[in-house]
């Protein structure tokens, strides 16, 4: 037996596991302190009522002979795929049902999709970036090159003609920086991908935070995207499904082979999202569901606003928070990311995510999330003001 040696090229532990370990150790040694977690982007508001009602109803159905369900279609039930199809229509994107694949979340599919690609492909990833893109490719032994995101390009790198990439990751609104590409910028990426015969893996997990009608929520709003892009979305942040698990991946039929290959992969390795969960997800797309989730998203946006206002008062440079739940800030006093993480935990008992964990260009930066409760966010910001104002 030979192990996959590529794992030796990974960081020792996944970014958010490292943080959780550090925080738990701190709590163990300081049981009297109240730690406020604004680190991992995990939601805090409960599921919407309409979703909970749908889940209850589906549970009841599973307990009755006539409505009990066993294995479902691996790519998702039609009722949910139709709901997703209708949702895309609201941003003027037409999809066929067999382009929609229901998943247990964007993270899994972003990793699993790599089954379709040869090891020799060159992968282009923005830096800083959600660590899953890099780690899943390192596990497969693929070469990763980076597109520099920094203050100069407002954390929105554009293609470099001198770099030939086969697989391109784009996350917009971006995790961790909160930056969002406009349609013209995405068109440049689409043209670049088509010229290089490359594929774009477009992560739109934070699309529901976009407040400006003109900004694209889906890459398919731009001409040509169906010829070169796969889109991943999730109900985790949209509807509080981080623990419930449901998302969707769009593999256009224009990508003929890939659409068929993904179906082949999923039918072989995946048995679908539970019926009960899919009924809950369907309710998210109902009229009432859309209204209810909007209230929750607005709640988080208010938190983001408060964080941003506090940072302004403290003269701390930052971006994001407007079309995204993340605020990306420059560590005060030129501290390094992990140094600031420790400083903040020690002195304010506030947990954030060190920018360096998202890539080299993240060094010296720090990410805060607006997914905490209003009370905790307020308290965390009061502590910030005491330290830095
Ligand atoms: C994050 O904090 O970056 C996200 O919550 C991670 C994820 O969605 O897996």
Descriptive report:
This protein is an alpha/beta fold and 389 residues long. It has 2 domains: 142 residues, Aspartate Aminotransferase, domain 1 (Alpha-Beta Complex), CATH 3.90.1150.10; 240 residues, Aspartate Aminotransferase, domain 2 (3-Layer(aba) Sandwich), CATH 3.40.640. 39% of the residues lie in helices and 14% in strands. The chain is built from 12 helices and 13 strands. A 7-stranded mixed sheet has the order 2-8-7-6-5-3-4, with helices on both faces. The chain has a 4-stranded antiparallel sheet with strand order 9-10-13-12. It has a two-stranded parallel ribbon with strand order 1-11. Helix 6 links the parallel strand 5 and strand 6. Helix 2 packs antiparallel against helix 9. The longest helix is centred in the C-terminal third of the chain and has 27 residues. It is globular and about 60 Å long. The model has no long low-confidence stretch (mean pLDDT 96). It binds D-malate (MLT). The site of D-malate has 6 residues, from loops.
Bound molecules: D-malate
CATH topology of the largest domain: Aspartate Aminotransferase, domain 2
Main sheet attributes: strand count, strand direction, barrel closure? 7 strands, mixed
Q: How many beta-strand segments?
A: 13
According to CATH, what is the class of the largest domain? Alpha Beta
Helix fraction, binned, reads: 25-40%
Question: What is the typical, i.e. mean, pLDDT?
Answer: 96
The end-to-end distance, rounded to whole angstroms, is: 58 Å
Q: Tally the helices: what do you get? A: 12
CATH H-tier superfamily of the largest domain: Type I PLP-dependent aspartate aminotransferase-like (Major domain)
Classify the beta-strand content into a percent band. Answer: 5-15%
């Amino acid at each position: 037996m030979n192990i996959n040696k590529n794992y030796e090229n990974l960081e020792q532990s996944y970014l958010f596991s490292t943080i959780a370990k550090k925080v738990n150790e701190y709590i163990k040694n300081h049981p009297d302190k109240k730690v406020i977690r604004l680190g991992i982007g995990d939601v805090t508001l409960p599921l919407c009522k309409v979703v909970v009602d749908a889940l209850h109803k589906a549970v009841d159905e599973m307990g009755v002979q006539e409505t009990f369900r066993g294995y479902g279609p691996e790519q998702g039930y039609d009722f949910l795929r139709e709901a997703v199809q209708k949702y895309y229509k609201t941003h003027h994107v037409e999809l066929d049902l067999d382009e929609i694949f229901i998943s247990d979340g964007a993270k899994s599919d972003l990793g699993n999709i790599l089954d379709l690609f040869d090891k020799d492909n060159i992968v282009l990833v923005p830096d800083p970036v959600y660590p899953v893109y890099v780690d899943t490719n390192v596990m497969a032994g693929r070469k990763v090159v980076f597109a520099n995101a920094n203050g100069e390009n407002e954390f929105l790198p554009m293609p470099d003609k001198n770099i030939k990439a086969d697989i391109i990751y784009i996350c917009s609104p971006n995790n961790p920086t909160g930056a969002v590409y406009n349609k013209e910028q995405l068109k440049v990426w689409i043209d670049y991908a088509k010229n290089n015969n490359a594929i774009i893996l477009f992560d739109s997990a934070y699309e529901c935070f976009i407040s400006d009608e003109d900004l694209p929520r889906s890459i398919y709003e731009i001409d040509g995207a169906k010829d070169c892009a796969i889109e991943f979305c999730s109900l985790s942040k949209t509807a509080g499904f981080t623990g419930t698990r449901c998302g969707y991946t769009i593999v256009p039929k224009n990508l003929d082979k890939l659409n068929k290959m993904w179906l082949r992969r999923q039918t072989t390795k995946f048995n679908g999202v539970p019926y009960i969960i899919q009924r809950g997800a369907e309710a998210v797309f109902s009229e009432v569901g859309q209204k209810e989730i909007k209230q929750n998203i607005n709640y988080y946006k208010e938190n983001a606003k408060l964080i941003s206002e506090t940072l302004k008062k403290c003269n701390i440079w930052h971006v994001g928070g407007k079309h995204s739940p993340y605020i990306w800030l420059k560590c005060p006093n030129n501290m390094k990311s992990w140094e600031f993480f420790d400083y903040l935990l020690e002195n304010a008992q506030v947990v954030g995510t060190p920018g360096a964990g998202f890539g080299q260009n993240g060094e010296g930066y720090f990410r805060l999330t607006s997914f905490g409760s209003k009370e905790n966010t307020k308290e965390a910001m009061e502590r910030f003001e005491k330290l830095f104002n």
